Amino acid sequence: MTTADGSYRIILVNYSREASDRRQLQVIIKHKDILFNQILPRVSKPGQYAGGECNAVVKDHASVDLTVALAFPDTYAIGMSHLGLKILYHMLNARDDIAAERVFAPWTDMEAELRSRQTPLCSLETFTPLSEFDVIGFSMQYELSYTNFLNMLELAGVPLLTTERSSSVPVILGGGSISHAMEPVAPFFDAILIGDAEDVLYPMMDVIGDWRRSGEPRRRLHERLTALAGVYVPSLYEVSHHADGTIARIENFAPAPSVVSKTTVLDFENSPFPTRPVIPNVEVVHDRINIEIMRGCPNQCRFCQAVQHYRPLRTRSIEKVIELAEQTFLATGYEEIGLTSLSSADYPHIVDLLDAVSKRFHSRRVNVSLPSLRVGPELAKLPGFTSTVRKAGLTMAPEVATDRLRAVIRKPIRNEDLLAGCRSAFEAGYRQVKFYFLIGAPTEREEDLKGIVDLCDEASLLRRRFTGGGGRAQINASISSHIPKPHTPFQWEAMNSRGQLVAKQAYIRSFRTSGYLKLKFHDVEVSYLEAVFSRGDRRLARALLKAREMGIRMDSWRECFDLRKWQEVFQDVGLDPDWYALRARGDDEVLPWDMIELRIPKTHLATERDRSRSE
Questions:
Q1: Are the C-beta atoms of 371 and 336 separated by less than 8 Å?
Q2: Would strands 231-232 and 191-193 be described as parallel, antiparallel, or unpaired?
Q3: What residues have CB less than 8 Å from 154, skipping those under 6 apart?
Q4: Once rounded to an integer, what is the mean pLDDT over residues 546-564?
Q5: Closest C-alpha among 272, 268, 341, 287 to residue 90
Q6: pLDDT confidence of 19, banded at 50, 70, 90?
Q7: Is the predicted pLDDT of residue 214 greater than 50, yes or no?
Q8: In three state form, how does the secondary structure of 97-138 look?
Q9: What is the residue-wise DSSP string for 370-435?
Q10: How far is the CA of 50 from the CAs of 36, 66, 545, in angstroms?
Q11: How many Å is the maximal CA-CA distance in the chain?
Q12: Alpha-carbon distance 70 to 173, whole Å?
């Protein structure tokens, strides 16, 4: 907050001086003084570090039993858009005995300022150093945020390895959409929650609170946590290897189970939901109301890891969605409502839902949007309901463009449905459409690549054909590289090499598209590194520690990513990244994530893999 003379004013939290530790309070005041008067005037977008946002929850630490720092290992703009973090913040602060606060990965300029002044990373609500919290919980959504995670621990002054932490050090928890295959960071976490958090979060906090009061060693906390459903404690598992580098055995130590099954919230209709989310100080990626209408996906695409993580399919009723949207609108005043899920167009009553939401909010000039529309017979009915105020682009994910390859990846769509949806969109006033494709899927051929351009060309022509004249529609095609992900039927498959993927991108670019088609290819080198860490084992922790020493972080940002530095890292620690990223796995090979079960037997995944080959 600035004063009339342009300097920053310190906003003090209402701490109870009698009950709280005076030394800790003095440390917090000192950090806030440095932050507001020395650091924030020198960094970009200082509002992301200033706190004080509308709907933020600030509690007196002296009045609670447990303090939790909810950490997102990416920037404020990314983390503040994440619904899962908002749910955790809402749930923890709903309890009077817990104070939950937020912290995000600082951008490079902020990091440099913190390091130069030897100032620790602090929370946004009370500017408390992370090392003073009882728990630091990381929401892990992307493998290339692993270095950010370690960087945040280091900036907080927390030992990186679990084996180096005493009982007084915060408990380091992990969770999120990649929690079922995080072996490269396993040595850094006390525990990892696999699956939905809603039914396990409170029992987890109770166990940690009891342990804190007991004075027992950290090992005892690890043992206690194994009694909870869906909690994986890496320190209680030992991995041995064959001479060729493959895993020989994964051994669990009592009381840890041999297999940890994901946890699932079954009463999704009434599960906790944040209707008073924190309104960000600066622009973020998804600055809108996001209502999760469905969890899981009715489709079982063979390449999709998220389908396995979020199954089974659960939905919220139209009445509940309207109720949550209304409450959130009144608490925020946002002008857009996003109806989110893995595949929102597969919501069983999607047309009725869109109709109900549009009627409720149209007079208030509130836009209704779906993140991505599934291609199916109902697609043609949807564009008229979405973007009822502003005609934004329509987004669909056909993934591939030919029937044969769709059968291989089990993507049950038809081009005629996709084109019918495009026609409906153009008739409703849309001028552009965005498609998501992937290249490098098993059995892909040249005609599959050409099919991407042919499909985009046909979709573009529809606007001229069915809207009474005018030009072509603008088609934006985002094309990513297929990574054979853990817990999918393709987890055994080889990945295309970087050379192969670059050649495929060049082939698609070679077609003349007269400007109507904008192609955006995901960086092949970024996909390659993602494959290394998504398919890797806990020996890669050595590489991550070396990367931290070399100052590597923010790998998902183009201006920071440098594969040459990573090649140095792998060479220094004696690991072959190709062996992790590109290699096909044997049918009988023990995989690094075999101690985690997503309620889909490995035998079923293998059967699906065989079926894909028969296509």
A1: no
A2: antiparallel
A3: 160, 548
A4: 96
A5: 272
A6: very low
A7: yes
A8: CEEEEEEECCCHHHHHHHHHCCCCCECCCCCCEHHHCCEEEE
A9: -S-BPPSGGGGGSTTTSSSSS---EEEEEE-SSHHHHHHHT----HHHHHHHHHHHHHTT--EEEE
A10: 8, 24, 30
A11: 76
A12: 10
Residue with tokens 């069915």, as numbered in its chain: 466
DSSP 8-class letter at 597: E
Radius of gyration over alpha carbons of the chain, in Å?
A: 25
Helix axes 350-361, 318-332, angle to 10 degrees: 30
- The values of phi and psi at residue 358, to 5°, are -60, -45
**The pLDDT value given to residue 521:** 96
- Three-state SS for 198? coil
* Type of residue at 370: L
And the tokens for 609? 């893999």
DSSP secondary structure letters along 534-595: HS--GGGHHHHHHHHHTT---TTSTTT--HHHHHHHHHHHT--HHHHHTPPPPTTPBPTTTT
Q: Are 518 and 433 in contact (CB under 8 A)?
A: no
Give the mean pLDDT of 585-605: 93
Number of H helices, E strands in the chain: 20, 19
Read off the tokens for 90: 């809402």
* Residues with Cβ within 8 Å of residue 510, at least 6 apart in sequence: none
251, HSE (Cβ side, Cα atoms, 13 Å) = 7
Q: Is the pLDDT of residue 583 over 60?
A: yes
pLDDT of 2: 32
Pairing type for strands 294-295 and 314-315 reads antiparallel
Closest CA to 488 of 309, 297, 303, 295: 303
pLDDT (tens digit per residue) in 466-525: 666 667 888 999 999 999 999 999 999 999 999 999 999 999 999 977 788 999 999 999
Which tokens belong to 275? 């209707």
CA dihedral 459, 464, 470, 473 (to 10 degrees): 0
Q: Measured between alpha carbons, how far is 128 from 116 in angstroms, rounded to an integer?
A: 19
pLDDT tens digits, residue range 429-450?
Answer: 777 888 999 999 999 999 999 9
At residue 18, the pLDDT reads 43
Outline where DSSP puts E strands in 209-282: 231-232, 237-241, 247-252, 260-261
- Chain position carrying tokens 């440098």: 562
